[in-house]
Amino acid sequence: MNAPGAGALLVVGDVVTDVVARHRGPLASGTDTAAAIRTVPGGAGANVACWAAHWGWADVRLLGRVGADGAAWHERELTASGVRPRLVVDPDVPTGTVICLVDTGASAERTFLTDSGASLRLAPGDWSNALLDGVVRLHLSGYLLFSEQSRALVAAALESARARGVPVSLDPASAGFLAELGVDRFLALIEGVDVLLPSRDEACLLTGLPDPADAAAKLSRHVPLVVAKQGAEGALVAEAGAVRARVPATPATPRDTTGAGDAFTGAFLAALLVGVEPAQAAAEGCRAGAAAVAGVGGRPPSGTRQNRGAVKLD
């Protein structure tokens, strides 16, 4: 259904280097803990772009900022995943790095140590209205809201998108950083966004409600479509103040949950662009999330594209 010329998905967000350390059980303070360690490309924005391309959308573009140290490697990796990167090279700051500590127990939960580096130094000068030429949807990584420079870029991008009638989606990205930014400020900054894709923790934080369904419903009074990611419990789709669908998770045996939410978002957007209903698009997101946790790192396998479930994406 996605014929050539059907339009582009433009993702604006973070591109970082992930160092994934998979260990079992508690870290041993003051001594060694055995771990399997890999260095892989990552970043929430970059991961979303790669999963959207992997899930079948033909024209996926990415605007991000990296240091000179990792620019060539990241460009190669993004291109191999089917993404058209536009990477701004920061002359002063290295590429962002995230240490992902993954407990290899049953849940494969992870803890992040984040050095944002160049990734949050995207600034209005890196934006051009021409970036929206041929674009049918703009997606923003919520990490961009956590620095003054990149917040200004978000404002410029939103203004450009409104002027052109391009719909905008956003993933809040980090409950920890979101708490520091403040709920009221966050909601003011995302005015004009039409799709919000929070995690369960982010949805509850943004509303002060303990129940994720209540939280998603309340958020959908502020944003037209809210898709709350629930991990092993699937996803909630809310519109106009009510939960419209509860989408079950796809069963998976997790090895590493890094990037599972990004995979969901990328596949969801690819399906939404095809024109399916949000609940069916969320089901595609759940399939991608299951695929993501079965591997290590936040990216799909390079060089392949998937047709998943009932949705034919190319």
How would you summarize this macromolecular structure in one to three sentences?
The protein has nine helices and 13 strands. It has 314 residues and is an alpha/beta fold. β6 (96-103) and β7 form a beta hairpin.
Question: Based on CA inertia axes, which overall geometry fits?
Answer: globular
Mean pLDDT: 91
Q: Give the distance, in angstroms, between the N- and C-terminal Cα atoms.
A: 6 Å
* Number of individual domains: 1
Question: What is the CATH architecture term?
Answer: 3-Layer(aba) Sandwich
Helicity range: 25-40%
Whole-number radius of gyration?
A: 18 Å
> What is the C-level CATH assignment?
Alpha Beta
> Superfamily at the CATH H level?
Ribokinase
* Helical/strand content category: alpha/beta
- Provide the β-strand percentage band: 25-35%
CATH topology: UDP-N-acetylmuramoyl-L-alanine:D-glutamate ligase
Largest sheet: 9 strands, mixed
| Low-confidence runs of at least 5 consecutive residues | 1-5
Order of helices and strands: EEEHEHEEEEHEHHEHHEEEHH
Strand order of the largest sheet: 5-4-1-8-9-10-11-12-13
Supply the number of helical segments. 9
| Topology, number of strands | 13
Protein name: Carbohydrate kinase
Pfam family, one: PfkB
Domain Carbohydrate kinase PfkB: 9-301
InterPro entries: Carboh/pur_kinase_PfkB_CS, PfkB_dom, Ribokinase-like
